[in-house]
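In this section we walk through a basic example: taking a raw amino acid sequence and producing a predicted 3D structure, encoded as discrete structure tokens. The instruction is simple. Fold the sequence below.
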Amino acid sequence: MTEWADIALLIVLVTLALGGWVANLIGLPGNWFNVAMAAASYLLVPSDSRVYVGLPIVLLAVAFAALGEAIEFLAGAVGAKRAGGTLRSTVLAMGGSMAGGLAGLFVGGALIPIPGLGSVLGAILLGAAGAFVGAIVGERWAGRDWNVSVSVGSAAFWGRLFGTVGKVVCGTGVAIAVIVGVCMG
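The resulting token sequence is shown next.
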């Protein structure tokens, strides 16, 4: 590849890695997107290119992504199990958390007026609030009383909050590994 092509590809890959990290905030598999991008660079880009990502970086990204998934899954499962939530409330909590996370990306800056950080915190907090609302709706729809519904909703809120924070922290490791791999290739 030419030097200009390498630089253009570098800019695209770094931008995509940051986009993958942001995707984690709304409940999308951004870590795995970044792993796939690193693996594609390892498999498809010539090893003498400036944007080549070596196998150790790919494996490091896989390890961070797997750890993030484990944290997110365990946080959500422990909360739902402890509160006795139904499958319906779990599904609606997931939908609510994605909708809340997406809304938080856009309105978080207005709610928390700190450039950049407001949108991140907004996505995390509104994602957890969406899980809370979704779980309550699911429990009420299943005919459960308000006390049980709010208890399950609260567990969904905290599970989503802790799970997302853990996944985003691990996602930071994935994104840094990929960006360093791309830039140092």
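Looking at the output, two observations stand out. The mean pLDDT is 90. The first helix runs from residue 3 to 25. In the next section we compare this with other chains.
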